Amino acid sequence: MKFMLMMHAPRGTGDWQVMSWAPQDLKAHIRFMKDLNVELVAAGQLVGAEGLASPAEAKVVRATGRGTPAVTDGPFPEAKEFLAGYWIVEVDRPEDAYRIAAKASSAPGKGGVPLNMAIEVRQVMSAPPVEA
To answer: Could you tell me how far CA 32 lies from the centroid of its own chain?
Structure first.
């Protein structure tokens, strides 16, 4: 079973709040994330993982029906959180994905205090078989 673990961070001023952290706190946070990925690779569970650019760089794109896309700034201002990064893991049961998400949630923040950030867990669905 594949699951996508989506790390949500609180919406700030349009830039990463982590950029205001002390350098040692940011380094500890990044080291934690790298160590988690190494652990998931060793367990044969990591399919993919990426951090995302700041929300100030996000764009929302919609089809216009005129052949050119409509591109606006994003995410929407009313959003309370934004997607900061994700993992795709392959595990035997949902509880394994929840355990990994809980560990990711505990990443250290300012002063080494665990962030306990929201990690959304959703199963990655496969397409139905194509009939010949």
So the answer is: 14
Nearest to 101, CA basis, from 80, 115, 112 = 115
Asked if residues 117 and 105 have their Cβ atoms less than 8 Å apart, the reply is yes
pLDDT digits (tens, 9 = 90+) for 15-33: 567 778 899 999 999 999 9
∠ CA 109-27-53, nearest 5°, is: 80
- DSSP state letter for 94: H
Is the CB of residue 7 less than 8 Å from the CB of residue 121? no
Alpha-carbon Rg for the chain in angstroms: 17
Rounded to an integer, what distance in angstroms lies between the CA atom of residue 1 and that of residue 126? 10
Look-up of token digits 């794109």: 61
Question: Which CA distances in Å does 17 have to 21, 22, 49, 78?
Answer: 7, 11, 21, 18
Its CATH class, for the domain covering 2-56+74-123, is alpha beta
Q: What is the pTM of this model?
A: 0.83
Domains of the chain by residue range: 2-56+74-123
Long-range own/partner contacts, residues 33-36 (CB < 8 A, 24 or more apart): 33/104, 33/107, 36/100, 36/103, 36/104, 36/107
